[in-house]
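Final report, closing paragraph on structural work. Over the funding period we assembled a curated collection of sequence-structure pairs, and we close with a single example.
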Amino acid sequence: MPLYAYLLLFGTIVLSGLSFFAFKTVGAKQLKLLLSFSGSYLFALTVLHLIPDVYHNGDHSIGIFIFIGFFLQICLEFFSEGIEHGHIHVHKHQNAAFPLGMMLGLCLHSFLEGMPLIQKFQESSTQRSLLTGIILHHIPVAVALMSMLMQSGVKKITAITFLTIFALMAPAGALSSYVISKGDIENLPLFFNQMMAVVIGIFLHISTTILFETYEQHRFNYLKLLIILLGGLLAFLS
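Its predicted structure, as stored:
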């Protein structure tokens, strides 16, 4: 994976999170629209590109790893409190351990998403589409993270430190995969295929949760529908 991809993964998260200080508050409607777009893109990317790719080699056990990723994300959200899909839980007057549990779940989530980025896909454009999907997914998460931290009374420097740690996780996942690829693994393509399947499970959980929650009041909304269609269209064209 080229150096600019690592920089994009890190830089977009940091800049998105720091934008909170420019706008001070995050509108719930704007955040939901951004989440709707990213969720739609992730879902379409997964269905149109990633799932066909992992089944290309005829490994019928790959579905097991998709299930593992799906339920792993459910477990991670016990720690992250669902901030991956825009949930902002303000914790006032908590003990010094906050928000370490949340950060642990969020960082592991991001680390796993970054691992398949160095994989060689059947179509060369899939890697670029996956990179775009992770970035689009992490931008609203970074904004939600900073909003939650500042509303919880965390010091500004501490909040920026947590944001930086989160921003490093996806590049660290990609870098760890690169190191693994240089080692002596008997069936490296199978390992990466299974790792991609785990991430597919994570994407399926995240994207469907986002899309269901944006229509939690079961009211038709033309703007949200348009945003969702645009996200899906972008994934189709990528």
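Residues 3-237 form one domain. The mean pLDDT is 81. We thank the funder for supporting this effort.
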